Amino acid sequence: MEYRMSEVEHAKFVLRLSPNLHKKIKRRAKVNNTSMNKEITNILSDSFSNTTTDKKLTDLIARLEKKRII
């Protein structure tokens, strides 16, 4: 059966994680005061957003240049 995301609220996906990765995500979710599901969703969403990463790198380079580190 095919469906479009607009036809359902959320799609479910089963994912197996290594114990180490599970622990890292759990820790990060706790730090960010969110659920593991939301944390994984945020990480995945951010991975598709190159502009976010590019902006962070550009800002970092600008700060380092200002401090004459690079």
UniProtKB/TrEMBL annotation:
UniProt GO BP: regulation of DNA-templated transcription
Superkingdom of origin organism: Bacteria
Keyword Metal-binding appears in the UniProt entry: no
Lineage start: Bacteria, Pseudomonadati, Pseudomonadota, Gammaproteobacteria, OMG group
Gene Ontology terms, MF aspect: DNA binding
InterPro entries listed in its UniProt record: Arc_DNA-bd_dom, Arc_rbn_hlx_hlx, Ribbon_hlx_hlx
Protein name: Arc family DNA-binding protein
Keywords: DNA-binding
Domain Arc-like DNA binding: 11-50
